[in-house]
Amino acid sequence: EAIAREAAVAGDLQLAFDLCLVLARKGHGLVWDLCAAIARGPAIENMDVGSRKQLLSFALCHCDDESIGDLLHAWKDLDMQGQSESLMMLTGTTPKFTVEGSSNIA
């Protein structure tokens, strides 16, 4: 956990992301806040919507009561982004709306 946090502070978000996935899979609940921050943060190589949702779902399972609303809102945004990306792939078109944090939608 300490290495993941230090990596994030140092700006190595790829390492922090990779470590958070491992810690989440092992059920290390204390890292929920970092998982949430990375899931809601800027795009990282190899981090698709599914990976973001995995980190966010882990955070939702372990977060404090005050964070549930914000994390559920972030989940909704990620879900919309994932559905939009699927629609774009199926139709070859770009939706006429935007989703906060998405780099693929005009």
From TrEMBL:
| Molecular function in Gene Ontology | SNARE binding
Q: Which GO terms describe its biological process?
A: retrograde vesicle-mediated transport, Golgi to endoplasmic reticulum
One Gene Ontology cellular component: Dsl1/NZR complex
PANTHER family on file:
NBAS SUBUNIT OF NRZ TETHERING COMPLEX (PTHR15922:SF2), NEUROBLASTOMA-AMPLIFIED SEQUENCE (PTHR15922)
Q: What is this protein called?
A: Uncharacterized protein
Organism expressing this protein natively: Opuntia streptacantha
